[in-house]
# Entry
Amino acid sequence: MATPQPGIGDWYRLNGGASFEVVALDEDDGTIEIQYFDGTVEEMDVEDWESQWEDGALESAEPPEDWTGSVDVEAGDDEGPGTDSSGEERELHASGLDGLDLFE
# Structure
């Protein structure tokens, strides 16, 4: 079986353990940058990727349902404008400088 080429955004698992996402590929250097769910970033050589895949140490994985593990998102960041942290609607006001033309 041919070793699958990693793609940015694809998820994999090492030895049935930690899941990681491929976040960058550098074909010139022959490296793959991976990020674990906890945010840890590592680099792997293409040769290591291929040998681990052939040994069965790497396998495809589904992305986690809770994607916020590897990014710095605070509760309430996913709420749209006009809501506060309790989910209640709030009134939005324009800044007093919105109509200012800096090039007049």
Summary: The mean pLDDT is 78. The first strand starts at residue 11 and ends at 14. DSSP finds one helix and five strands in the chain.
